[in-house]
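Following up on my earlier thread - several people asked me to post the actual chain instead of describing it. Fair enough. Here it is, all 260 residues.
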Amino acid sequence: MALEAARRGAEVLRRRFGTLKVSDAEQKGPKDFVTSVDREAEEAVVSFLQKRAPAAVLAEESAARGATDGLTWVIDPLDGTTNYLHGFPHFAVSVALARGEQPLAGVVIDPLRREEFCALRGGGAWLNGGRVSVSPTVRLAEALALTGFPFRAVDHLPQYLRSLEAVIRGAAGVRRAGSAALDLCYVACGRAGVFWELKLSPWDIAAGSVLVEEAGGRVSDFSGGHSQWRTGNILATNGALHPEMVRLLRGIFARRARTR
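Reply from S.P.:
Thanks for posting it. Predicted structure:
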C-alpha cells in the first residue's frame, strides 16, 4: 500500500516538475517553503491510503488525523521542495507506516531517476526489486558522508559547523544535496556510509530509517540513543562507522548542552 501510494505522489511530482517559479511558493518559516505541488502530491497519497488502508495520518502539509501513537501513515509528499522550485533534480516522496515512534515499513521514490526504495521491518530493503545493503566501509577516511544544513535551527549553526569541519577532516568526502529521505536511502544502498542532520521532522526520517536498518545499518540520535523521532537529530551509518560518529557528534553537541 505504501508503494502504491508513493507512486501516486511521485507521478504528481514528475508531471509538475518545471512548471513552478520560486514566486509561486508560500513560506511556512525561514527558508521553509510549500507549494501547490506539495499539497497535490499529499492529497494523492493520503486519499489512496484512506480508501485502501485506513490509519492515522501524520503528513507534512496538513494537520495530524487520528491518534498518532498507534498505527500511523507518516508522509512527506515532497522532500526537497527548495530543490524542486529551482529545477534542481533531487527530491522525493516518502511514505512510511509506523507504530508510535517505530517505523514498520517505508517507501521513498525519486520520481526523476525512477528509483523506488522499499523496506519492511524484518523483511529487508530493496531498490527497484533488488535487495540492497549498506557499504562495507570500516574507516571514516574511506567513507562518503551526507548531511543537511540546519536551516530551521540556525541557533545550532556553530555546533553544526564544528561537526561539519570534523567530518570534512575525517571523511573521504561530504555532500549536501537537499533531501534527507534520499540521503537515508543512499546510506541504505551503500552509496554513502554516513548521514547526519539536525532538527528534522518524523516525516523526513520515518521511511528512510527503516530502509537503513533493514539494509544492515544503524540509526540513532547523536548520542547513540533513540530520541531522533522527538529531537530530529539523526545519525545514520552503515553500522561499522557508528561508534566513531557518535563519539564525534556527542562530544560537540554535549558541549552546547553544558553551556546552556
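The first helix runs from residue 2 to 16. That should answer part of your original question.
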